[in-house]
Amino acid sequence: MGIASLPPGLEGNFIEVSSGGGSSWLAFNTKRLYTNAFIIQDDKILLGYKKRGFGVHKYNGFGGKVEQGETAVQAAARELQEEAGITAPLEHYGTFLFVTEGGPDWAFQIEIFRAEEYSGTLIETDEMRFQWFATPNVGVGIPETTVVSAAAQAVVELLPIPFDSMWESDRYWIPLLLSKRHFIGRTDFKSVGETFTLEKWWFGEIGAREW
Length: 211
Ligand SMILES: Nc1ncnc2c1[nH]c(=O)n2[C@H]1C[C@H](O)[C@@H](COP(=O)(O)OP(=O)(O)OP(=O)(O)O)O1
Fold this sequence. Notes:
Blueprint: E1 14-21, E2 31-41, E3 44-50, E4 59-60, H1 72-84, E5 91-101, E6 107-115, E7 128-134, E8 136-139, E9 142-148, H2 150-156, H3 170-178, E10 183-192, E11 195-206
Parallel strand pairs: 2-6, 5-10
Antiparallel strand pairs: 1-11, 2-3, 3-4, 3-7, 5-6, 8-9, 10-11
The structure holds the ligand Nc1ncnc2c1[nH]c(=O)n2[C@H]1C[C@H](O)[C@@H](COP(=O)(O)OP(=O)(O)OP(=O)(O)O)O1.
């Protein structure tokens, strides 16, 4: 792996950490901004089970569209409050494009945030049911190595991150987020109704970009 030519829609100086899938990227017209925020503490991560809407029945971070007049971090904070009832000192760690065949002709540009602390009391909302999961000792880009540490199992008895019930590409970038590595990426999916299949992906970490 090394400095690589980036997929269309990405810019900067990044080192490839994971890629795969078919030979060509999907075309898209424009990008729309979304956010996704995670609370990560010691050996655990906070996820939400999506009860309705886009991505229903998947576990994910808390987030949604960036509304007009908002910055991405403001939108991330608002969505975290709306969907989980908490506030947190969010820090930006990644950006990836999500493009779908059979979906809109624009790309979701998803800005990823994390925080280690939060204020307030977690609540279940109409949209999300929160749940803590044990963070694994992961090898970046190698999902099979997701082994939960003995400490995490013994102390908190949490389930491991449910990658099989998340967006298929999450297993390639969540390990980067857990280990505080700034990243960028692109994921192209095929969609048929509410079923999404990962067709092609690329993730890289920071080479020489200011964050
Ligand atoms: N591929 C992939 N991986 C990880 N996360 C996501 C995707 N695709 C996605 O859309 N997402 C994330 C990005 C956002 O956090 C949500 C989608 O936002 P949505 O819930 O539709 O936006 P809201 O503004 O909350 O929607 P409404 O409440 O207005 O319906 O999924």
